[in-house]
Specification:
With about 180 residues, the chain is of the alpha/beta class. Helices cover about 45% and strands about 25% of the residues. A four-stranded mixed β-sheet has the order 1-2-3-4. Strands 5-6 form a two-stranded parallel sheet. Strands 7-8 form a two-stranded antiparallel sheet. The longest helix is centred in the N-terminal third of the chain and has 30 residues.
């Protein structure tokens, strides 16, 4: 009976991992033409290994396995892209996404301009599906672009300081980042 249940759990895990890989790769394809999640391997010692494909090279998180090691092969932008894609795939499994509160802390770290633009698009789409999206950033240009892209009502806050005290205050990044003629108007 135990062997039958283990086999059943193994098949269920494989189906779930395959679906997770598919959803992750849907997001990765938006950000990168040469990076994809190849497989997820669950070991008897409860260790899970992720295998990536970068061009023609297999990339792994496990230094014991032959291939290119994750920390030395992917750029910081690729790592950020992978993290966002994995996270968005995980969120897609939520049975009631409208009840989720999702927090991103500086999601643009090490991203080029194309990936920045795509991240803004994906965050805007995510905001349409979930209960609340909180994005923390020091990049006011990114905040203005995200504010402009959002299709749902949004509120931007900034931390203000005076005499060792701090508080949150409303901020319109779009207005405060206006330049030239737009600022004059």
């Amino acid at each position: 009976e135990v062997a039958a249940k283990n086999r059943e759990m193994g098949l269920y895990s494989k189906e779930l991992f395959d679906e997770f890989i598919s959803r992750t790769n849907e997001h990765l394809a938006k950000f990168s033409r040469n990076l994809r999640l190849e497989k997820i391997s669950k070991e008897l010692d409860q260790r899970t290994t992720f295998y990536l494909q970068l061009d023609d090279n297999r990339v792994t998180f496990d230094e014991k396995i032959q291939g290119h090691e994750f920390r030395y092969t992917l750029s910081e932008g690729d790592k950020s892209t992978l993290a966002i894609s994995l996270f968005l795939a995980k969120i897609s499994f939520a049975s009631k996404p409208e009840n989720l509160i999702v927090i991103f802390d500086d999601p643009l770290t090490s991203l080029d301009s194309g990936r920045r633009f795509l991240t803004i698009k994906e965050l805007s789409k995510l905001a349409d599906k979930i209960g609340q999206l909180v994005v923390l950033t020091h990049d006011s240009t990114f905040a203005a672009d995200l504010e402009r892209e959002m299709r749902v009502p949004n509120l931007s806050l900034e931390r203000a300081y005076k005499n060792k005290e701090s508080w949150l205050t409303k901020r319109s990044h779009h207005e405060q980042n206006a330049t030239g003629l737009f600022r004059d108007l």
